[in-house]
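In response to the reviewer comment on reproducibility (Comment 2.3), we provide here a single inverse folding case reported in full, input and output, so that an independent group could reproduce the run without further information from us. The structure tokens appear first.
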């Protein structure tokens, strides 16, 4: 799409929250050419457009490592139920969805993400072509997993693994869409499905994304059925390996933490969703990180969060670990920002391209207004704390992907919100009517 060909530009005199290996925060310039960062620090030579960034903090775009963005139309539909009751309501609606309402929901969710500083997300859903179209329309970076489950349990037309293969073939090589395969979880996937997903990912060179050990019930039922808890069973059948992102990982033993570390599996931590669905346990994020597991942060869908804001997610993640561990030093602000940026990029295997402001990386970034009340006092030594604990989505003024402005002065650049929300509200009206019947 030619609209993505961003002009060279220099953001002048910004507060740069680099997230580089030294985690430097500095006053300086950030230059972008060909969608790539070419200078970070004082004294960038002029290359084209000059942007006065003196009133802003420039922050790497957030990486949301677990979402079901097409469910954005279902916000508020299944509140205040545990996962079992929640899925009962949602599965009934899911079966009635059409390509056009999937796209309308995805577009609304992508708009919400962009407006809160997220530039990359990892998704798990079926009908992902519609989601991919919404990604291309609005200019976010979408890692889109096609949901697979056992053929006899799905409402998809055809075998889910074949559908995933077709989706990957259709979307490989697209600029902002990265297709992958996504087994839903042990409760709907047998060994054959898991290994089929693994083989497909190896064959096509894609990631694998899945739910893992989200609830105690899932763990106990799987143990009753197979004699093994989910991660150890997945290891025993030969599934676990690098290039995988497991969402939740709430109910994990020490041995399972070690297993995930040894196998190079990354975990997407989704604290708001876990808390709201009363998962009961707390994901051992501190232990996972200590064991060497890469942990990213995910919002999960708005049906269980009910927000797609990574700012809110950092805040909740920090508070949850501190409270649970009786340790106010657990997951400090810097670690929270790491989860939301560079570690999310590591989970996706693209830390060489995304997740920090460094020369050579893609220019995916947000500009936060330093004069916003939630960033006061706007001192450089407090900016990481503000991002982790207090910053409002309203402080996000502009967002760039590949150096292209996708949000400017809190408005989407490629399509007006009125169009996106109009289509989403119309689609939601139909879906909600169906849900009540
Ligand atoms: Zn999920």
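Designed residues, in position order:
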């Amino acid at each position: 799409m030619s609209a993505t060909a961003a002009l060279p530009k220099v953001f002048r005199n910004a507060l740069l929250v680099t997230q580089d290996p030294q985690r430097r925060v500095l006053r300086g310039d950030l230059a972008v050419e060909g969608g790539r960062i070419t200078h970070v620090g004082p004294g960038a030579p002029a290359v084209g457009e000059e942007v006065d960034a003196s009133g802003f903090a420039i922050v790497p775009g957030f990486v949301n490592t677990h979402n079901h963005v097409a469910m954005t139309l279902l916000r508020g539909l299944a509140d205040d139920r545990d996962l079992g009751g929640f899925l009962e309501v949602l599965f009934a609606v899911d079966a009635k969805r059409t390509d056009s309402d999937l796209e309308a929901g995805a577009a609304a969710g992508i708009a919400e993400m962009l407006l809160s500083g997220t530039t990359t997300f990892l998704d798990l859903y079926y009908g992902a072509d519609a989601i991919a179209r919404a990604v291309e329309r609005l200019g976010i970076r979408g890692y889109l997993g096609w949901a697979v489950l056992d053929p006899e349990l799905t409402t998809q037309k055809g075998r889910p693994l074949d559908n995933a293969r077709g989706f990957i073939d259709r979307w490989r090589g697209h600029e902002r869409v990265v297709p992958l395969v996504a087994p839903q979880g042990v409760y709907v996937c047998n060994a054959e499905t898991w290994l089929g997903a693994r083989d497909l990912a190896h064959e096509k060179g894609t990631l694998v994304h899945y739910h893992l050990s989200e609830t105690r019930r899932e763990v106990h039922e799987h143990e009753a059925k197979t004699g093994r808890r989910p991660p150890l069973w997945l290891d025993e059948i030969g599934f676990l390996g690098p290039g995988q992102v497991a969402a939740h990982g709430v109910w994990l033993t020490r041995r399972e933490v070690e297993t995930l570390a040894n196998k190079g599996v990354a975990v997407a931590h989704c604290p708001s969703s876990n808390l709201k669905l009363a998962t009961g346990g707390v994901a051992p994020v501190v232990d996972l990180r200590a064991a060497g597991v890469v942990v990213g942060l995910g919002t999960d869908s708005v049906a269980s969060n009910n927000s797609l804001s990574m700012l809110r997610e950092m805040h909740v993640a920090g508070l949850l670990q501190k409270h649970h561990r009786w340790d106010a030093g657990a997951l400090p602000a810097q670690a929270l920002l790491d989860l939301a940026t560079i570690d999310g990029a590591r989970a996706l295997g693209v830390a060489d391209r995304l997740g920090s402001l460094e020369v050579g990386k893609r220019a995916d970034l947000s500009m936060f207004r330093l004069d916003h009340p939630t960033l006061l006092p706007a001192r450089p030594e407090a900016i990481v704390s503000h991002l982790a604990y207090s910053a409002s989505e309203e402080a996000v003024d502009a967002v760039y992907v590949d150096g292209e402005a996708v949000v400017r002065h809190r408005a989407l650049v490629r399509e007006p919100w009125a169009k996106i929300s109009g289509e989403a509200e119309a689609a939601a009206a139909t879906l909600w009517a169906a849900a009540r019947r």
